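input
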Amino acid sequence: MAAGSRVVREVGTRSDVLAEPAWLEEHLHDPALRVVEVDVSPVAYDRGNIEGAVLWNVYRDLKDANYRLVDKAATEQLLVRSGIAPGSTVVFYGYAPAMGFWLMKLYGHADVRILDCARGTWKDQGRPWSSDAPKAVTSRYRLPDEDERIRALHSTVEEAINDPTCTIVDVRTAPEFRGERFWPSGGLEEGGRAGHVPSAAHLPIEGTYDEQGSFRSAADLGQLFSSIDPTGDSEVISYCTIGGRACTAWFALTYLLGRQHVRVYDGSWAEWGRMPEKPVERP
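output
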């Protein structure tokens, strides 16, 4: 591949947004490719990562102190120090790859993919793995305004409560939805209230991946999301705790099932549950 050229992709198939492990290994050193691991701490990344990958720490790089998404200027700086340019093909993997994918699409980046296997599967298959710091690469990136069609703010969610034209979907675990936990780990949050957004449908997404960490078939995903009609045309807003699982639901519905009008409430429960004026429902 010529230096600086775009990675060619097949349009209209899962390969448009999913990177098969063999494909990524083949293109790992292409100059237009950037690989990003998304996690909530550097522990796993520091022990080993896909060769050349950079780390995006959700709490350090993507969220502010109130768990809200960082602004456009901070996102630009993140992309620049990650070596991502407007023509880059960006592949995400790790704990919350769909969050990285969603952030790039929020600003209209053209070629974004998710590695279609777990990081452990990649390592176990003997593919390029390293604990060395990647060579520093910087870029220039002037972001456009965000695409408001795929993002919901807390005010939007509040307006959607009991709105028959919009389905609010809580994709957390049952203990979180029932208000038995604020954080998935069971940890407490000062000033935080456990529960769920009133009128939200509960649709946990633990079955999104198979045993290799690959997305299940469209037929399986359609069955998983059948309670909210994955072929419908009404609006859907997904949320979880910090946005990672909500972005996974958005990605599966939008890119693997072709559903329109799906938005992510990226503030999710970490924001909503800490806002005393917001309604909270518990069984």
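quick obs: The radius of gyration is 18 Å.
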